[in-house]
Design brief:
The complex is a heterodimer of chains A (344) and B (488). Helices cover 74% and strands 0% of the residues of chain A. Chain A has 344 residues and is mainly alpha-helical. Chain A is globular. Chain A has two domains: 57 residues; 269 residues, ABC transporter involved in vitamin B12 uptake, BtuC. Chain B folds into three domains: 232 residues, P-loop containing nucleotide triphosphate hydrolases (Rossmann fold), CATH 3.40.50; 157 residues, P-loop containing nucleotide triphosphate hydrolases (Rossmann fold); 58 residues, no CATH class. Chain B is 34% helix and 25% strand. Classes of the chains: A mainly alpha (344), B alpha/beta (488). Chains A and B meet through α8 and α9 of A and α10, α11 and α12 of B.
Chain lengths: 344, 488
Amino acid sequence: MSKSQIYRFGSLISAFLLIAAIILTTGSSPFAVIGTMLSGAFGSGDQLARVMVTLIPLLLCTAGVIYTFNAGLYNIGVEGQIVVGAVFATWALRLFQDSVKDDAVPGALAIIVALLAGGVGGMLWGLLLGVINVYGRVNEIFAGVGLNFMATGLAIYLVFGPWKRPGVASMSGTQPFDDKLWLSTIGTTELSPVGILIAALGLLITIILISRTHYGLRLRAVGNNLRASFILGIPATRQLFSAFAICGILAGLAGALQVLAVFHRLIPSISSNLGFLSLLVAMLITYNPVFILPVAFFFSALNIGALRLPSDLKLESALAGVIQGILVLFVLLGRGLSERYGKK
Amino acid sequence: MRVELKHIHKRFGAVHANNDVSLLVEAGTIHGLLGENGAGKSTLVKMLTGFYSRDSGDILLDGKSVAVRTPIDGVRSGVGMLHQDPLDFPALTVLENFQTRSRFTPASGSSAQDLAKLAQQFNFKLDPNELVSNLTVGERQQLELLRLLSLGVRTLILDEPTTGISASQKTQLFNAMRTLASQGKSVIFVSHKLEDVEEVCNHATVMRRGQVMGSVPVRKGDRYLSGQLVDLMFGRELALPNKPATARPEIGLHMKNVLLKSDNLSVKIDDLKIHRGEVIGLAGLEGSGQRPLILACAGVEPPVSGEVFINNSNLTHKPYQRYLDNGVCYVPADRLREGLVAGLTIQDHVAIRNPASGMFLDNNAMNAKAKAAIAHFNIRGTPASKVERLSGGNQQRTQIALMPNALNLILMEHPTRGLDIESTLWIWKQLIERCQQGTTILFASADLDEIMEYSDRVIVFSGGNASAPIPANELNASKLGEMIGGKF
């Protein structure tokens, strides 16, 4: 085994040891936790469906941030792009809800419009971040955090203000939509075949665009060296904007799907922090979109499996976040060490 | 303080930056340290001040051997350095910067008095409450100088202090240096400007390629001095022009009333006409204005005013893409920062330069193209080699291989820097073949042999002044050297 592999493998082992140690300090056994989480995620068809429901937006967002990662941008604004996508989709549904109720407009049409609106909303929010970053010279991380706050603020304002439920406004969101405006789901679960299809398409297109086209190559060139790419004749600014826009579209679609298939209304925490989780996934796989699916699936399973921990083991379900965070940190550490010391 | 450096060696990897350097600076004198960029001057003074540690050799201060390992050691033994970009804290005030001299911040009242007293001694006017970010470079130098003196520095090193400051600030600075020398302190003045050294120094030492070439006393009105210094800086014999005639009667590049600006330089070019197929060498010390000219011709940094024509089409203020479409190609000196994309392979670069029809990458075709380029340009690598793993010479060959086929204008900086003789000859053979097809070439080089050997005409730059193009066969070493030193 090469020195570089030892660093990478060693850091992964350290991550697992640290996770085990943390679990032990809570008075529980790591094996019990694994067992509980496995059964929590895969114990029944319903549970697997819940994993998939989390996986859909996670896949879309991760695919999105892969574009910006390749362009050398840490697009933390993806979180806000989900929210704005959800807001736009809700807005479109609100426009149609009365005519759909009266059967003047087919529900399917309204749903398609809502999906498109979600994509457009996310794209606009992404482009706004791009403008601030490229022309305003504000670091995309700071600008992204700011826009995230604004997006959440917008959602809360709408839920408690103009779009508030008849009667009393609450954190539980707007008035649920008529079920003609729901995306159909499998059985009693929240898993929507259309959602699966959109996520799969988004993932497939991303893999092809990034690794097989001139566009993807140019994006990687810009991400590795903006100046040299420009001198070699790549329209670098346009390339950056396209990455922000595509990421926004995918995140916006994820937001729209959360409204259409999962919550059937706008809630303040519509993004469920999946944007941040997608950044973790993207950091783990760096630039290669082929690994999005397995890692995102693993992270979704952790999220859902951990929901069992409070009832079965009296542990916080936040343990999933701890595990994800430790894994990412140690993998990055191992990568850094092997780059610094791993050369012969 | 008397400073003596004996047999100093310093290597950075394969580069022997200081090779057996010895230097003697007497107390009460101003000593000029002359040389081109990369001659090893900065390395030498940085070892004296503790920024670098030497590989071998001795440093003696007033006859006592000292081990200067860190900048603090340097200041403690009485050596201070005024850096080209002053090492200060722009977000703090003048007084606060001045107070950073000691570990325990003294009462600001007494500090303010110290500052005022010192400033008065040199006739510097500094407002103690002004933010350093609002000061000019010259004022920041003054502040740094006072701070170093308050630390008890007895040997002061100034690294290229006259770049970017006004004429009156320069006079003030030179007066301050003379005052310090009269107090028995020693001053080391690092510069590549002959005029400045002749004006202010008592003694001058010339470095070239990491070695001391000679040391001469400076006397006012010495007619032979500048010739002597030029010889030491650039060497006596230069290569003879050795290039077939390739110039054609048509004009390939025309610049009219162009004004170029870079950080601390402005370059004026009234009327420059270059023929197709002609090779123009841009001589001069680095940072004298060659780069703004090259970037303007390339369309990367447009001129402030004036017009640029390439093969009779007016490209003034047109976007860079238009320059590319008009057959302009810029080959930067800093291969990994500007020329190539580290992280990508040779094949990736070939694909970037060949945006074939259709959106999909044709890996087989690009692989074949990359292989052909590697064979034709004799690059040691494979299509899958990442460019940062290639040697400098092979990176340069890759840059040449990536140049599009039909070009009107090639702009190069240091086309053969760091390359062996074989690669140098090979690269120029490729370039001259292009000239024969009518391509115009402008290249900047620090290597005067290269300038003489391959240019049809030469433009000499000095501190932002550009000469008219001079036929290479009318130039000789001393004329070139004097012009580079600022005497047109």
